[in-house]
Amino acid sequence: ALLACFTRFFSGRFDNANQHRTDAAAGLAPREGGGHEHITCRITPLRVPGVGDALFADYRFPARGDASFRTRLYTAAASPAEPGVVRMQIYRPDDARVEALAADPSLDPATLDWAEADFNAHIPDCDVVWRWRDRGEHGECYFDGELAGGEVTVFSPVMKQEIRVLDSLQLFEDGLWINDRGFDMEGNQIYGNWRNVPYKLAKDGAATVNLGATDAAAADESAPGGVLIARGTAGGRIRPSDVKLP
């Protein structure tokens, strides 16, 4: 039940358009200006021979011609030794897959012929540990995610350099908050939000994220407290009793 709940929360289309508009109205430009770029994310469940259940994620910049800036494959499993924990591994798809999907945003990844060989490029040290929380500040149930090893240093094939990565994630029934930040070896920030405010993506079909005035004003806001993500989805609210921990 825990893994099924995680997959349900994590699957779908996500968008932070409301947050981007709120930042712009407050005079906060992206990056050094303290605001957030407008990003979208589509996460698609897959069934892969030799692998089992997996997920494909495609992150895009609508303002840049809907350019795809990150594509990933994920596998996830409940941890028998850790009640309430889902461990997720992250893989880079091969270039041919990335090019085909980047060129056609309407292409459904689930229709492609995925195989075990597509999961050879595991990104080391970037596994994510998700912990089930059934008593959030506002009564919501959610998953709290962090890198398994804390902050990590990895080589970016896109940036052609080593970067230090800090990552904090919150996954709700109707939204995904991403506080993913990268720094060069001299400590200069490369990407992410300069005010340490998560990218708050609402799930399609869910209520709009209610950012409120505090999102634009807070200099050191941390998720999931401070700003409420509006609730309500077509599938109904998940209650703590709906999720049975191993």
Structure write-up:
By secondary structure, this protein is mostly beta strands. The chain is 13% helix and 36% strand. The chain contains four helices and twelve strands. The chain has helices at 2-10, 17-25, 95-103, 212-217, and strands at 12-15, 40-48, 52-61, 67-78, 85-91, 128-133, 142-147, 152-156, 161-172, 175-183, 189-191, 199-203. The protein has a ten-stranded antiparallel barrel with strand order 1-2-3-4-5-6-7-9-10-12. Strand 6 (128-133) and strand 7 (142-147) form a beta hairpin. The longest helix is centred in the N-terminal third of the chain and has 9 residues, at 2-10. The radius of gyration is 18 Å and the shape is globular. Residues 207-241 have low confidence and may be disordered.
